[in-house]
Amino acid sequence: MNSPTETLVNIHGIAAGGAGVGRLPDGRAVFVHRTAPGDQARIRVVQEKRRWARGTLVSVERPGPDRRPAPCPYYARCGGCTLEHITYPAQLRAKSEMVAAALRRIGGVETSAPEVVASPAEVRYRNRVSFTLLRSAGGVQAGFHTLEQPGTVVDVDGGCLLPEEAVARTWDALRHAWGPGARLLPAGERLRLTLRATVDGVCTLLIEGGEAEPAAGAPRAAGGRPEELLAAVPALAAVWWRSTVGEPPVLLAGAETVLDRWRDQPLRLQGALFLQVNRGAAELLEDHVLALARDAAPATAVDAYCGVGRYARALGAMGVPTVGIEVDPHAVAEAGRDAPAATRFVANRVEDALPELLPSALLVTNPPRAGMGAGVAAALIEEPPRRVIYVSCDPATLARDLGRLEAVYRLRGVRAFDLFPQTAHVETVVELEQR
Predict the structure, then answer these.
(1) Residue 281 to residues 6, 169, 408: CA-CA distances in angstroms?
(2) Class of domain 1-67
(3) What tens-digit pLDDT sequence spans the chain (435 residues)?
(4) Handedness of CA 135, 139, 144, 146 (dihedral sign)
(5) Residue 170 to residue 43: CA distance in whole angstroms
(6) Per DSSP, what are the bridge partners of residue 236?
(7) Could you tell me which CATH number the domain at 93-120+278-434 has?
(8) Quick one: which of 5, 76, 175, 183 has the most CB atoms within 10 Å?
(9) What whole-number distance in Å separates Cα of residue 361 and Cα of residue 241?
(10) 3-state DSSP call for residue 145?
(11) Which residues are catalytic?
(12) Where does the chain hold its CATH 2.40.50.140 domain(s)?
């Protein structure tokens, strides 16, 4: 017999966070990680709310047609991926349904499940990976948070299937080089370590948290030994540090800039400069956005949250007078380097700069996961561009923003791109047309 907290459920879908979705006998939705559509699963209910519950998987009594053995050796406990136990075509179908459900439920936008363009690579696709390092009396653990246990870390080496080969090799070398207690890294119980590789395999390391400079009278180890790290890890060209996310990084050792290329654009990487993590899939997304922009035939354009200015530069090369807006001054410097004459860039927050740049025939916007601020939506309602191309990394905040703009814009098209295989994340491109 089942214990009072165990039950059999049939899994019918995948939720936005990657958990399978089923129904308890009383009709409530229940979310269970590591289940797949079509599974009959024995689960243990661990959290109950009035309308939903959360469970953990006890056993798969009857596997669904899309279940597969997870290829990664760390998948049983690691929370870095959530969909490895599902075949790749089924992952794409699940992400399509996630996007449509978010648009309908949060934004009130009725649309069919969109196409999801597959990533050229299902594994070894990330040129940038962030790991968590925890120091404790038991030693050093460095990897990803444990599934549903964010306070603990699964120790992960280069056998993880997410990083590009260059990142995986450098991660292994770094783990070997930092020494007992990770003494060559800055002091602190918890650090965030982000490795990024250029197209040529040269890597940079950004350390967040801890102490980069030793306190007065403290041994040098309190601030780490970044020069020794560089000497011990040949592929590592620079070590940066900042105490918290959002602060300007400080160069601790190595080259101030590292040369990278993004298609036809040379880039000088510094600190925390943002680039998409999946080059191949990002190029497919970029081509789609620019095709939509050409179809709009705009007289003027604004590229909001423009980063290194890929869309603004391309529009300028088409002869469209374009202004890019980006808060990161390093990104603005790279965007403006040898940019087309028709393009200029503004280093400012979008909510502050955009009202002065409207009206415009076209707006391309690629905000962070939090989506566009309410002030940005208000500016678009006040002076609406004829066409908006919205690139989103979070269907929920995209849906919220579309709900804000519903009175002014109608949905012209939706297409999603799988920049993050094996995870529940998905990138979505929405085209809006003024009513």
Answers:
(1) 41, 22, 31
(2) mainly beta
(3) 344 579 999 999 999 999 999 999 999 999 999 999 999 999 999 999 999 999 999 999 999 999 999 999 999 999 999 999 999 999 999 999 999 999 999 999 989 999 999 999 999 999 999 999 999 988 999 999 999 998 899 999 999 999 999 999 999 999 999 999 999 999 999 999 999 999 999 999 999 998 765 544 444 444 679 999 999 999 999 999 998 887 889 999 999 999 999 998 999 998 888 899 999 999 999 999 999 999 999 999 999 999 999 999 999 999 999 999 999 999 999 999 999 999 999 999 999 999 999 999 999 999 999 999 899 999 999 999 999 999 999 999 999 999 999 999 999 999 999 999 999 999 999 999 999
(4) negative
(5) 39
(6) 203
(7) 3.40.50.150
(8) 175
(9) 41
(10) strand
(11) 393
(12) 1-67
DSSP letter string over 171-201? HHHHHHHS-GGGTTSPBSSEEEEEEEE-TTS
Which tokens sit at 138? 């038991």
What stretch(es) of the chain map to CATH 3.40.50.150? 93-120+278-434
Rounded Cα distance between 343 and 363, Å, is: 14
247-285 burial by CB neighbour count: b if 16+ within 10 A, else e?
A: eebebbbbeebbebebeebebbbbbbbebbbbbebbebb
Cα 164 to Cα 277: distance, rounded to the nearest angstrom: 10
How do 20-23 and 6-14 pair as beta strands?
antiparallel
Give this prediction's pTM: 0.93
Q: Which regions of the chain carry the CATH code 2.40.50.1070? A: 128-269
d(CA 369, CA 362) in angstroms, rounded, equals: 22
Per the listing, tokens 């991926």 go with: 81
- Residue among 430, 302, 303 at smallest CA distance from 359: 302
Q: How many residues does the chain have?
A: 435
Token readout for 364 is 């391309």
Cβ distance 306 to 335 under 8 Å? yes
The torsion region of residue 323 among left (phi > 0), alpha (psi -120 to 50) and beta comes to: beta
170 and 195 Cβ atoms separated by less than 8 Å: yes
Interatomic CA distance for residues 274 and 227, integer angstroms: 25
